[in-house]
Amino acid sequence: MSNEDNQDRELRERIANQLRATESARTAPATDQELQALKAAASRLDQLLKTGADADVQALRSAAARLDEILASIGRGKDVTGGIKQRRDGKRRDEQGDAAQAENLTAESSGE
Question: Where are the beta strands (DSSP E) in the chain?
Fold first, then answer.
């Protein structure tokens, strides 16, 4: 068995042990206040998931529209490689900017 397999097995065992410990520690029934907090959290999670799904749908529609434009341009015999490369390079700059912004936020929140 490889080292990765051993690590995976150990991780699964630790997770199972943690779940068992948490399960056995919780013997009292949940209070009304705890249930309300859980319902509120579930509602927020549902909203986050819906927002994420809506954003995914919008991103897919936008990508499909761009693909249609590219295919139409190719159909008209136009060279589309420049536009594709510009978008790709722009996206890389955006991703680098997002990573730097996340790093700055992390540093600010840790007090650095």
Answer: none
